[in-house]
Amino acid sequence: MTRILGIETSCDETAAAVISNEGGKAEILSNVVLSQIADHAAFGGVVPEIAARAHVEALDGVIAAALDSADLSLGEIDAIAATAGPGLIGGLIVGLTTAKAIAAALGKPLIPVNHLEGHALTARLTDGIQFPYLLLLVSGGHTQIVHVEGVGRYQRWASTIDDALGEAFDKTAKLLGLPYPGGPSVEKAATGGDPKRFAFPRPLKGEARPDFSFSGLKTAVRREASELAPLGEDDIADICASFQQAVTETLTDRVARSLARFNETHCAIETPTLVVAGGVAANQAIRTALDALCETTGFRLVAPPIRLCGDNAAMIAWAGLERLEAGLDPDNALGFAPRPRWPLDEASAPLFGAGKRGAKA
Ligand code: KG4
Ligand code: ZN
Known about the structure:
Layout: E1 2-8, E2 13-22, E3 25-35, H1 37-40, H2 48-70, E4 79-85, H3 89-106, E5 110-114, H4 115-127, E6 133-138, E7 143-150, E8 153-159, H5 165-176, H6 182-190, H7 215-228, H8 233-265, E9 273-277, H9 284-297, E10 300-302, H10 306-309, H11 314-325
Parallel strand pairs: 1-4, 4-5, 6-9, 9-10
Antiparallel strand pairs: 1-2, 2-3, 6-7, 7-8
């Protein structure tokens, strides 16, 4: 039996979790996520300095709570996995240094984990899916499609050329005066709104390249909102519904390109899998649209439960376990420096402006 403590502090969640693995059967023993949303709400976005301080104050307690709810003491942990990037440097330093201290004190291995790899491998923990598969990662800092071939073997097939999708939701909410974080607010406001009232653009729709773009959509929303101002509740509902409609249409059009490429690459796989992860995967309209797309293209859609879609430490512990078992833990982990920028696919050149907000995932 292997028990791994995971630590995640790359953005605005202080998280710790314990997972166990016995004879290939993995189990989440605890998964504690302390959100800093209230600390940042007044600023309409994550303030790096506030985030770093909040991690310092909360992390020890969050780790203690994770051990407590797993009913384990620190001495019963076999390895420690911590997010080492990408993300806000202050938070990464807090989490990784804490993990190093625990690993050094216990004399147990430390596995520095790429946060994106945590998102990429979660569906193997929740649904036991096999390699290879396609990952659609949609969060506040990243929007990309990754071809997942194995542990540590990732190819980015598509990415946003400007804003991340979650960022587009957050900015839309902000300019409509809806509360932070914007995604859930926009989704809620869209209920009952008219998705056809505004013909917002569907950026890159129909183009051969597989990438995403959302900044033009956000600009169109701003223009419409300022022309209509002052906005009534119905206007806000209609803008949100029309925005979401544009998002789902352009998203599914873009994703379809990579599904086709996956089928060409792996023609022997009978039921290929598309995994959707990241905070935006909580959006019901997006899930429904992806469901329909998978239905028509013969893909199986796997969406981890919402508490494992957004940032959490169970996914970091799991990625650490996968790395440990694949023999991919580094020799000098205690000397591993945090990496604010750390693409999953180091071979792919970064796209201009691709989802760079706070470098979070
Ligand atoms: O993965 P995540 O928890 O954190 C990182 O970005 O790393 O994702 C947060 C993002 C935010 O931009 C938030 O507005 C968006 O996910 N989000 C949503 C929804 N819930 C969260 N976007 C659209 N619809 C939602 N229901
Ligand atoms: Zn994330």
